[in-house]
TrEMBL record:
Annotated pathway: Metabolic intermediate biosynthesis; chorismate biosynthesis; chorismate from D-erythrose 4-phosphate and phosphoenolpyruvate: step 5/7
Organism: Nocardioides furvisabuli
Enzyme Commission no: 2.7.1.71
Protein name (Swiss-Prot/TrEMBL): Shikimate kinase
Gene Ontology molecular function: kinase activity
Gene field: aroK
Record's keyword annotation contains Magnesium: yes
Cofactor: Mg(2+)
Subunit description: Monomer.
Residue numbers binding ATP: G12, A13, G14, K15, T16, T17, R117, R152
Cofactor binding notes: Binds 1 Mg(2+) ion per subunit.
Length: 166
């Protein structure tokens, strides 16, 4: 069993939103590793970061991705930083992976100033810029397809993925 598609990309790329649209369109279940980690630990991601640190969160994330890739045959959305771990990148070697690309301006608009994204605390715009610069090559390295999301609605993004992966 393997996911029909895995969505990767930075915070605000729309992974969770587009995963839901694809699941509805294809009639398949949707999984999101951020939600899986919160369900298995009973803790919010922001609390895990504050209380246990990012490394501990990444360990949980590797396990969550491994379980989802092994068990899930629908749409899988990953947390924005999951691909930072080589173990996670290796798990994606044999599945279609769509990198949802988003530029700085649209990403900032989409994530707002909520407290649910611990890596963005402080200056959201400069934090996102650093993450985009560091991670874009990593997302590209795991992607089998790249879909631009700037200036497009989630429905338009989902429709392009359905055309790429009929
Ligand atoms: N193409 C889009 N155009 C405009 N707004 C969008 C688009 N995609 C998602 N959004 C909005 O941006 C916000 C973030 O989207 P979403 O939670 O799906 O991102 P994510 O990639 O899953 O982020 P994270 O890595 O933090 O989980 C949501 O409010 C969502 O409605
Ligand atoms: O980009 C990241 O590193 C993160 C993205 C979110 O999906 C969560 O997994 C968490 O807030 C960390
Ligand atoms: Mg998400």
């Amino acid at each position: 069993m393997a996911p029909r598609v895995v969505l990767v990309g930075p915070m605000g790329a729309g992974k969770t939103t587009v995963a839901g649209l694809l699941g509805d369109a294809w009639g398949v279940p949707v999984r999101d590793t951020d939600a899986d980690i919160e369900a298995t630990t009973g803790r919010e991601i922001s609390d895990i970061f504050v209380e246990s640190g990012e490394d501990a969160f990444r360990e949980l994330e590797v396990a969550a991705v491994a379980a989802a890739v092994a068990e899930h045959d629908g749409v899988l959305a990953l947390g924005g930083g999951a691909v930072l771990r080589a173990e996670t990148r290796d798990l994606l070697a044999d599945v279609p992976v769509v990198f949802l690309r988003v530029g700085l301006s649209d990403a900032v608009k989409r994530v707002g100033i909520g407290v649910g994204r611990p890596l963005l605390l402080g200056n959201v715009r400069s934090r996102i810029k650093v993450l985009l610069d560091e991670r874009t090559p990593v997302y590209e390295s795991v992607a089998t397809h790249v879909v631009d999301t700037d200036g497009r609605t989630p429905d338009e993004v989902a429709d392009e993925i359905r055309e790429l992966l009929p």
